């Protein structure tokens, strides 16, 4: 076990909040970013969008193979990976990195996916990326996710073959501007129904 | 229950983001638009080329025995459109392309190939690539595609 890993039994809690508003100030001018995309034009669009955000893309890779070599040589701060690529796809690349036990293994990772085949849903869930962003890659959503991933309060973990961020969001509450969670809606509805019928509400009945 | 090993490593990104200087999210978005504007014409050309490829590919039914390969190629071409359409407000076209990918994925999983429904999708993408269609008409097209995909999901393999 490496020095930066500790074994504990209890899960951690998330006490920071993700999200952004238009006045949020951020500075990622010094971030070393790698973008991996087999589509040259898509890579260009991503690079230019990031440039607008004040982020210089230091490494551009057209394949997972190329990225794997570079990731073993240079330290990066953020990895943005296209999910669908010929040969080794984005999911395999991310899973490899999370298990590679190299300097970059725990780098924040955003996957970008146009359409996810049903056969790839489990790979998407289990590869260890911090977020999966659906195309079309709209700049406002892209920036929001970058700010999320930079301030992602979830700790990284290894559990049962999964290496990546803690996938449990239940203690975080909804991000800014997002409606309350379904469980809360159900709980509120159950409370309203119980009030109407004067029935006591059982604890946890809507969870 | 498997043991959990927590990785006590804070990302450098989380430290960099709060360094002094930088910009606001609003300014960043405006600057991103400025950076992307010169690419718009090239993106439209790439979309047109991708759409023509898709139309050529689906103009006739696939040869017997090559249906799976054909569906994979259509999926790849559709994914290529989604790759470049993103930042330029072609939401309806993207929705139709996403629907095509979903349809093709479902047909591939069910080991059946229905070129007619694929062609309807490709024609709809072409239609929605034109900016002069009224909103109601665009929505009607998308609703129709959605029904096609749902019907494909219910059809026996």
Description:
The complex is a heterodimer of chains A (207) and B (157). Chain A is α/β, with parallel strands linked by helices and 207 residues long. Chain A folds into two domains: 33-165, 3-Layer(aba) Sandwich (Rossmann fold); 174-207, no CATH class. Chain A has six helices and nine strands; from the N terminus they run E-E-E-H-E-H-E-H-E-H-E-H-E-E-H. Chain A has helices at 40-52, 64-71, 90-99, 121-126, 139-150, 182-197, and strands at 5-8, 25-26, 33-36, 57-61, 78-82, 109-113, 131-134, 156-159, 162-165. Chain A has a five-stranded parallel beta sheet with strand order 4-3-5-6-7, sandwiched between helices. Chain A has a two-stranded antiparallel ribbon with strand order 8-9. The radius of gyration of chain A is 20 Å and the shape is globular. Residues 1-19 and 199-207 of chain A have low confidence and may be disordered. Chain B is mainly α and 157 residues long. Chain B has one domain: HPT domain (Four Helix Bundle (Hemerythrin (Met), subunit A), Up-down Bundle), CATH 1.20.120.160. Chain B contains seven helices and two strands. The mean pLDDT of chain B is 92. The chains are: A alpha/beta (207), B mainly alpha (157). Chains A and B meet through strand 1, strand 2, helix 1, helix 5 and strand 8 of A and strand 1, helix 1, strand 2, helix 2 and helix 3 of B.
